[in-house]
Design brief:
Length: 61
């Protein structure tokens, strides 16, 4: 059981790291990120806004 929980923690950390890297890359290129609400509505958000709101990271251009 412990190994399974350890795996989940590593997986979540890896996914969070990948998300931050993706947002940084898209923010540098001034790209949008496609998101959806729980009820399925799709919308676009600037990567810079998500990076600042979620991670407190600001891209200087």
């Amino acid at each position: 059981m412990w190994e399974n929980e350890e795996y989940r923690i590593k997986l979540r950390k890896g996914l969070a790291l990948a998300e931050r890297r993706m947002l940084k890359h898209k923010a540098v290129l001034d790209e949008l990120v496609i998101q959806s609400t729980p009820d399925g509505k799709i919308f676009e958000t600037p990567a810079t806004k998500l990076l600042e709101d979620c991670y407190g990271y600001h891209i200087n251009k």
